[in-house]
Amino acid sequence: MSQATTSRPSAPAKSSYQPEIQGLRALAVLLVVVYHFWPHRLTGGFVGVDIFFVISGYLITAHIYRDIVNNGRLDLGAFWARRIRRLLPLSFLVLGVTAIAAVAILPSTQWATTSRQIVASALYVENWVLAGDAVDYSAMDDAATAVQHFWSLSVEEQFYVVWPLFLFAVVWLAARRGAPTAGRLRRLMITFLLLIGAASLAYSLWFTAYDQAQAYFVTPTRIWEFAAGALAALVLQGRQFTGRAGNVLGWAGLAAVLASAVLYSSATPFPGYAAILPIAGTVALLVAGGRSPVSGVYWWFSLKPATVLGDLSYAVYLWHWPVVVLAPFVWLGAETAAGKLLLIAMIILLSWLSKIHIEDRYRRSQFLKPTRRSLAMAGTGMAAVAALAVALPWTVALATQGPTVSQDDDCYGYAALANPEACQPVAGSGAPSPSVAEVAEQSKDPLFPDCQAEFDTPGVRECLLGAPEETSDGAIAVFGDSHATAWLPALEPLAQRNNLTLKVYSRSGCTPTVADLENPGTGRDLEMNTLCTEANREIVKRVAADDSVGTVVVAANQADSDFVSSEGFTSDDPQIEGFTSPWRDWLDSGKRVVAMGEIPRLQTGDGPDAPTCLAEHARDPLACAVPESKAFPWGQNIRNAAETMDDEDFTFVETTDFFCRDGRCHAQIGGIVTYYDKSHVSHTYAANLSPVIEDSLRKAGAID
Description:
This protein has 704 residues and is an alpha/beta fold. It is 53% helix and 8% strand.
């Protein structure tokens, strides 16, 4: 294994155990656990993770520096082998147990996402997977998986891999200019740390302002936190501020950490500028040696209860989050205060057993001490966990899948709704085809991935589907939000059958109105709303001037309850003109307009989506149906605007009948799951409705 060497410096660095650091670890894990169990009480407890980052930078850099000074070289293989023996065995155990528990406890709709993230966690790239999901519109509403907390462990492991390589390069550069003294090597390392830390902090400030959701997870925005701890280790070399100054600095550091834990929340732009407070507080705690009884903060951090919890902190961190996520699925009391306290006690007991039988055993293992064996164990463990995470849900799904409704059945899909005399029950007599798990994945696997612009994308995106423009007999334009996109599996084959080009102009979260939107209740700022409105106005002009377009299909979600415009537009009193003005412009240019009615919603708020509900009620799919009176909780602007139209070339398509019968709207119809979430039509059901929608358009004269 690679080594960097120098002559042995004359001034070896001292090594000393600092029990108060275990107390600091206890504080970090306590903040995280309380935050995860009571997120509305300790809203900024997530800063506990940042404390861990600073401690890691402090200890690992001090350790590497001591090795170089004392031994005259940096043995990368031995360093990585120690980290592997210390950290990976328990993490593999937690991931393996979670993989089994997830299949046993969670609805099948969550298996695929959990499996994917377990694999990512085993490979220590979970933070990058979550960063990708953070900017994926289809994944934004996904429930947190039982291994999501591995994002921070992934960042740490990446740090453990890359950091020694950087320091290896520093040692190598120093050695090329002659045998360095300990002081010269230290100054060179400090210079390097200042540069890389400043670059990471600058990037963190910029990227957090640009895209906070993604910035929270990516490694470059966090490197400066490790560097802060590393600088504290090298600048002071284990020395600390003592006496009254140490006491004051220590308590000030603790106050900074606790203030950020109490005052911050999920709305705080983080890491960015906000991370400076807890990081500075943690550094102050590391360098302030105020050990006076009672008055010294480190006196408290060195007490036995604090150091014991610090010893267990790694195991507690690993075990607590799967318990938080999985326990409510098997125990109703998990959401009560007494239940949470009982679960925390169980986590501590489990962590104590894990430390004794897993952490300590493998860390001290003589068999694994050779570097090659440690590396082999790491590779084998990663492969085994990944294989378990992938194979187990697939095997269980295959073994438990019952007979499905045949697609050739006369009562498959919409036919079951349209023929009540011949087709009972509405849901169908077999398991859905495709399965609920497959339908749940449709939100992450769109059939036409490049056809929908995201709400923050400037300009207009046009997507061409159906027949090629050069040989087609005309075009149909599709205008609307993600609910318009959801109809593409019905409209695209329809266009193909009639040799028509489909020109798609859809934008997620962007209601198809030309009104100036000030607060559509989506949490977007005025800039995002302006992008939406400007794009809509440009689309209206472009479609009106396009002679190839003979028909325009408009579709949208139900309006949010606080949807308003600069003209006082609300869901109760729609600003009709914002919708009808484009329709009249298109009608005046000789086109037909087809407005698709808003579709019923199965759930609002925190209720389960259609696939999840069906997975939980596999034997009674009708339990997931909702009364039609509750399926339209928000304003139906398309419907309200359509009622003001009086033009033979305008058609309103009643979509409620596609989902509801006898006053109830269904999550499963004729063996097809109707929605891939709470309100978007599933690809399968939309495609099944294609002939029905085609018939509606033909009757309206929109298709010859």
